[in-house]
Design a protein that fits this description.
Rossmann fold; 6 strands; DNA polymerase, domain 1; 13 helices; about 280 residues; six-stranded mixed β-sheet; alpha/beta; 2 domains; about 50% helix
Length: about 280
Amino acid sequence: MILIDYNAVAIGSVILQKDEMNEDLFRHLILNNIRMYRNKFKDKYGEIVVCGDGRKNWRKEYFPNYKFKRGANRKKDNTDWKELFRITSKVYDELGEHFPYKTVLIDECEADDVIGTIVDSTQEFGRGEPIMIVSSDKDFAQLQKYSNVQQYSPLKKAFVVENNPRQQLLELILKGDTSDGVPNVLSNDNCFVEGIRQTPMRQTTIDTLVEDIKAMGDEVYRNYCRNKKLIDLEETPSLVKSKILNSFDEQDLDERSKKRGKVFPYLVEKRCRMLLEDIEDFI
């Protein structure tokens, strides 16, 4: 199974062209990249599953400061993000309607939750089918605790190899994630919002907490639990996991097979002439 982190791949496909909001061009770039990853990995890993980000993120409800900088940073550049997201959302819907792939998007969660939940489900009953995650997100390295999981980074154009995923996850929880607005465990919830510098995390502190997570008192342990909830994909709420698996399971093979005949007329309608030459790579 090839799990595509759709928003990351889609935005990454068009980011160098973002000053030119051309729907046809963006569609071509997104579809061509998906074609390329399918062609690269299908023989070993099987079919694509396109995993999308929902509009309502449960992490935002749990921790209101989650990714708070994203909106502010977007206002600082000249990209028409509203139009960009309109196009990428439209192409996602078109993939679900016209291509023989499973598409999974649950309103309450991110693609991280979708991918983590599907990967976890492959461990049941000893199935363990080979999984390739196509994403540059470092959070997915934690899933390499499962022997059937590999990750490819479109940004680095290389495989992501994590020899000690459990240790990597623990240290990520301790250090936090500035890009997602998650402070380290020595810092309070509002440090980024208030522009307060984080308390530095020295290696000796990390080593102490790895040895005993409660060694530095209740407040640090409380912050550890905060970060674990936000970063550890096992923490995805059970109701959200159920919705993900229901969406995944209800897309049966027969229905998807019928969509193979929709790919050619779709590419013709959308004037994707160059992609028509490689139509076999899509189906």
